[in-house]
Amino acid sequence: MITRNFFLFLSQNKFMKGRAMKWGPKFGAKSVIAGETIQEAIDTVRKLNEKGLSATVDHLGEFVYSREEAIESADYCIRTLEAISEAGVDCNLSLKLTQLGLDVDRELCLSNMKRILEVAKADNNFVRIDMEDYSHLDATLSLLAELRESYDNVGTAIQGYLFRASEDIDKLKGMNLRLIKGAYKESPAHAYQKQEDVDRNYVSIIKQHMLNGSYAAVATHDHNVIAEIKKFAAENDIPVDKFEFQMLYGFRTDMQADIRSEGYKMRVYVPFGNDWYGYFMRRLAERPQNVAFAVRGLLSK
Ligand code: FDA
């Protein structure tokens, strides 16, 4: 737990971020980040597609504090969607609302999202809003509700560690949702703290959403959860085109291939860009064994 909290602390530490960014994405991050440019991300996606894996790309970046940066981020998302369409790859887009100015001006963030969704709609593509920390949850869901009045090619992610996850799942019936355990450090006032409680609630919300007849993207590296959901789908006659599994790029790649070869849809979340620090620290917090990546990266400098 100390290790987890340590890396979550580092994920928000500006001084350490500055230091790490100077080193560049060595430091182990390379094996879980698909390069810095759109072209590198597309090349990675193409390789995944060749193995039968779908993808979603995420241009890394969060906590934008100026209008200019928020507009720039939205423009970059649009360029990424255009590159996906030109390359003809099987890939959608994941993004964070704080990248698009949620903390700067809600209306600006809304208009940035609308610009992005127009382009995605023209290309018949889908955009997933990643879920950030608890302080952004209500703002994210309210913006999503407004977007859903005009667009059906947008969804979000719900975190199983939150007490209110089941209520939110009910309100979002019918929507394509990514279901996750949750990656941020949250207070005991809102979130389960014990792993076994998180796991239990996580499995429960996945089943709830699947039984609603809604499309579920089950995003986890946890083999126990994956096995349980495969069994649950079979027992409840839920067809394989009503759900998919998702994992992060560079994690459990053998299992990704196995899941696909069993006939399930498997989507890989492919992060790219030079703002990799927060993302990488959250991955270290989840699985301290990943520190081995970091050490290897440092030694190979
Ligand atoms: P967890 O880390 O709890 O692992 C469970 C068990 O699985 C481990 O004990 C181990 O046995 C095994 N295991 C896990 N990783 C392994 C590995 N690499 N190798 C071998 N065994 C391994 N979070 C968020 O808050 N907002 C978001 O929008 C997203 N988006 C998102 C998208 C995708 C595609 C994924 C996969 C994850 C996210 N997350 C996220 C992160 C998510 O909330 C969660 O923090 C991580 O996925 C870690 O939890 P897991 O469910 O993967 O299993």
UniProtKB/TrEMBL annotation:
Residue span, Proline dehydrogenase domain: 41-293
A GO MF label: nucleotide binding
Cofactor: FAD
The EC number(s) this enzyme carries: 1.5.5.2
UniProt pathway: Amino-acid degradation; L-proline degradation into L-glutamate; L-glutamate from L-proline: step 1/2
Keywords: FAD, Flavoprotein, Nucleotide-binding, Oxidoreductase, Proline metabolism
Taxonomy, superkingdom: Bacteria
Annotated InterPro entries: FAD-linked_oxidoreductase-like, PRODH_bac_arc, Proline_DH_dom, Proline_oxidase
Record keyword Lyase present: no
Binding annotation for FAD: 131, 159, 181-183, 220-221
Residues given in the record as substrate binding sites: 96, 282-283
UniProt signal peptide: none
Biological processes per GO annotation: L-proline catabolic process to L-glutamate
Cofactor binding notes: Binds 1 FAD per subunit.
Catalytically driven reaction(s): L-proline + a quinone = (S)-1-pyrroline-5-carboxylate + a quinol + H(+)
SUPFAM superfamilies in UniProt: FAD-linked oxidoreductase
Protein name as catalogued: proline dehydrogenase
